Structures are given as structure tokens and as C-alpha cells.
């Protein structure tokens, strides 16, 4: 599928990745774009909505889709980003996480099935669904073994994408993201360090022992991979890891963020081997499968951090 002349519904469009996806897809000549988010659209999106008859925004909750689905225009593909995105929140409020990430996602998938929308693309989480594994880098054949409720919800919904593809001949795709960062992100470890250093340039508090190592991907490379996977020519269900080649420790990130802020703070560790309950300590993803579609990481980790910090300073 190419997005040309397709009618696309994007959930979670006001969020970090949803907005970046929107900015790219408008260049691919879809016939219609409908944006759906519980929060208001980004200012730049509102400008498009005001100017173009074929771009609409609906402020609503995915869990209530049955109440407003009659207001939506015909759709060819659903791009599903809307989520409760926090591991700590999923620990404190497990049913809330389940309600949004499983029930809400299921409502969107059922809406697709009932309305003959054949294509559904989902933002899963490779950083959490594999849990702690010795198989590093981890490929898509690895057993799903989440250690957080957030990861469990992502894994659970992904199973339905598999069964719906088989039962109802839908084309369903799951992108298992690593940690995505870049301009527009207001969560994650880099943003946290940036904010803390703005408040106190002399000392940086780091959660855990700083040795947690994970893989990261700059937002533009994430959107490249997402669009390639969504546009694949085969049918049925496919899952793809999508992340950076190398894993990076939290201390290394602290050093880079400090460097690009022009600071040399003292690092203070809270201790323990992980940042929060449910935090996966080591993770790195094998991305050979998505590379076979022609995907390539274009932005090095360090270059990505420098561009992100520069955007935060603007
Ligand atoms: N950012 C990452 O590093 C990362 C990593 C792995 C997976 N993901 C997944 O990618 C997707 C996008 O992540 P993001 O970083 O852009 O998160 P984000 O929090 O910036 O965006 C999520 C959006 O979903 C919306 N939303 C939440 N609940 C909703 C509901 N009930 N109904 C309608 N809209 C709702 C929010 O308002 C927000 O705009 C999420 O599914 C997330 O789990 C992100």
C-alpha cells in the first residue's frame, strides 16, 4: 500500500510520534486524513485542519469510538498511536492501562473490522514486550515475556492483530519501537535530564545506577521505518522491531545531554539496578527484518541527541 489517494485515520495524532507521522504523511498525497486524539491538536496541525477540507480533527477518546464513529468519513487504513504510554503509570494504575491500551485498542480494531477497513498499523513496544532476555540483540522470534503491565498490554493487543489478520483477512502490522526521541518529545530520559539540568545545572540526579542499557532511535528514522512497514506489499500480519543499532547506557546519555547543553554537572545516582519498577535493564533489538524492507538508520545516536537538545533550546 502506498498512502497516495488513501483515506487515513491517525489515533494519538496530538502526541509526539503521531504528530511527526502526520507531518510526513501530508507529503504522501493521501486523499483524506482524520486525526483523533483526546487532547487538542498541535497548533501546526490546526493550521492544516483550518486550511484543507480533506484534513479533519476529532477530539475524542478511542474507548468511546462507538459513540462518534458515525461522524467519521470513509477510511482505508487506521494508524494507531493513541495509548497510555508510561510504564510507571501502568504499575500504579494497571486497570487504567489495560482499559486504554487493550480495551481502547480493541474498540478501534473492532471498528475497523465492522466497517471493512482492511489495514491497521500499531505502535507496539519492543523495549517492553520482550522483557529481560539473554537473547541480545533480540529478534522478532523471541518469546514475549513482558515484566511491566504496559508491556503486557502491548503484547496482548498485538496478539489480536495476528488473529484478526487470520480470521478476517485484514492486513495488520505491529511496529515494536525502541526508545524514540527527538524534537517534539516531552517524555523519556533525555527530556527528563534536560529539564533537571535547566533547574539545576550543577547536579544531575540519575535514576538507578546508570548502567541500564537500551536502544534508541531518532524520530525521523522511526517514521521512515513506520511508513515502509505500513506500505509493505504482502498481506496478513507482520511485526517489525524498529530501533537503533547500538544500545546506550543511561550514564552515556547523561554525558551527551550535558555536553550538548554545555554543562559539566556532578552525577548523583539514586541506586538500584533499574530506574523504576517494570524497567527493563538491558535491551537491544535486531532490526534485520525491517532492513529487508529497505530501512536504514540515517541518524547516529549522538547526532540525534545534539539535534534534540538544540530543538529544546529554541
Ligand atoms: N515514545 C517512545 O519511545 C515509544 C516507545 C515504544 C512505543 N511507543 C508507542 O508509540 C505510541 C505513541 O507514543 P508517543 O511517544 O507519541 O506518546 P504520546 O503520549 O506523546 O502520544 C500519545 C497520544 O495518545 C493520546 N491518547 C492517550 N489516551 C487516549 C485515548 N484514550 N483516546 C484518544 N487519544 C488518547 C494522547 O493524548 C497523546 O496525544 C504509543 O502507542 C506508545 O505506547 C512509544
What does this 3D model show about the protein?
- With 314 residues, the chain is an alpha/beta fold.
- It has two domains: 7-181 and 215-244 and 284-291, NAD(P)-binding Rossmann-like Domain (Rossmann fold, 3-Layer(aba) Sandwich); 189-212 and 247-283 and 301-313, UDP-galactose 4-epimerase, domain 1 (Alpha-Beta Complex), CATH 3.90.25.
- Helix content is 40%, strand content 19%.
- It contains twelve helices and twelve strands.
- The chain has helices at 16-25, 43-51, 65-68, 87-92, 94-114, 126-129, 149-168, 189-199, 219-230, 250-261, 288-291, 301-313; strands spanning 7-11, 32-37, 55-59, 77-80, 119-125, 171-177, 179-181, 203-206, 213-218, 237-242, 247-249, 266-269.
- Strands 3-2-1-4-5-6-10 form a seven-stranded parallel β-sheet, with helices on both faces.
- β2, α2 and β3 form a beta-alpha-beta unit.
- α1 crosses α9 (219-230) and α5 packs parallel to α7 (149-168).
- It starts with 6 loop residues before the first strand and ends with a helix.
- The model has no long low-confidence stretch (mean pLDDT 97).
Features:
314 residues; alpha/beta; Rossmann fold; UDP-galactose 4-epimerase, domain 1; 2 domains; 7-stranded parallel sheet; 3-stranded mixed sheet; 12 strands; 40% helix; binds nicotinamide-adenine-dinucleotide
Distance between the termini: 37 Å
Instruction: Determine the CATH topology of the largest domain.
Output: Rossmann fold
- CATH architectural arrangement of the largest domain: 3-Layer(aba) Sandwich
Pick out the low-confidence regions.
none
CATH superfamily (homologous) name of the largest domain: NAD(P)-binding Rossmann-like Domain
Instruction: Just give the CATH class of the largest domain.
Output: Alpha Beta
Instruction: Give the integer mean of the pLDDT values.
Output: 97
Number of DSSP E strands: 12
Number of helices: 12
Radius of gyration: 19 Å
Largest sheet, in brief, is: 7 strands, parallel
Beta-strand residue percentage: 15-25%
Shape: globular
The residue fraction in helices comes out at 40-55%
Amino acid at each position: 500500500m502506498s498512502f497516495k489517494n488513501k483515506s487515513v485515520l491517525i489515533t494519538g495524532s496530538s502526541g509526539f510520534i503521531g504528530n511527526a507521522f502526520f507531518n510526513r504523511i501530508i507529503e504522501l498525497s493521501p486523499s483524506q486524513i482524520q486525526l483523533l486524539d483526546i487532547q487538542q491538536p498541535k497548533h501546526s496541525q490546526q493550521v492544516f485542519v483550518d486550511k484543507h477540507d480533506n484534513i479533519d480533527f476529532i477530539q475524542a477518546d478511542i474507548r468511546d469510538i462507538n459513540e462518534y464513529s458515525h461522524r467519521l468519513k470513509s477510511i482505508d487504513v487506521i494508524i494507531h498511536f493513541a495509548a497510555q504510554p508510561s510504564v510507571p503509570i501502568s504499575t500504579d494504575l494497571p486497570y487504567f492501562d489495560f482499559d486504554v491500551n487493550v480495551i481502547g485498542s480493541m474498540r478501534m480494531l473492532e471498528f475497523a473490522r465492522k466497517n471493512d477497513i482492511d489495514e491497521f498499523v500499531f505502535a507496539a513496544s519492543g523495549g517492553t514486550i520482550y522483557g529481560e532476555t539473554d537473547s541480545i540483540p533480540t529478534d522478532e522470534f523471541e518469546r514475549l515475556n513482558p515484566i511491566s503491565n504496559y508491556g503486557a498490554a502491548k503484547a496482548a493487543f498485538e496478539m489480536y492483530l495476528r488473529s484478526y489478520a487470520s480470521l478476517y483477512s485484514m492486513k495488520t502490522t505491529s511496529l515494536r519501537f525502541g526508545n524514540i526521541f527527538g524534537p517534539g518529545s516531552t517524555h523519556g530520559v533525555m527530556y527528563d535530564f534536560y529539564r533537571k539540568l535547566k533547574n539545576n545545572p550543577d547536579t544531575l540526579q540519575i535514576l538507578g545506577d546508570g548502567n541500564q542499557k537500551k536502544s534508541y532511535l531518532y524520530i525521523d528514522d522511526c517514521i521512515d521505518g513506520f511508513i515502509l512497514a505500513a506500505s509493505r506489499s504482502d498481506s496478513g500480519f507482520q511485526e517489525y522491531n524498529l530501533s537503533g543499532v547500538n544500545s546506550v547506557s543511561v550514564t552515556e546519555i547523561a554525558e551527551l545531554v550535558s555536553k550538548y547543553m554545555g554543562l559539566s554537572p556532578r552525577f548523583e545516582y539514586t541506586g538500584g539496578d533499574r530506574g523504576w519498577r517494570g524497567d527493563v535493564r538491558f535491551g537491544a533489538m535486531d532490526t534485520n527484518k525491517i532492513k529487508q524492507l529497505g530501512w536504514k538508520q540515517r541518524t547516529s545516536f549522538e547526532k540525534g541527541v545534539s539535534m534534540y537538545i538544540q530543538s529544546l533550546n529554541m
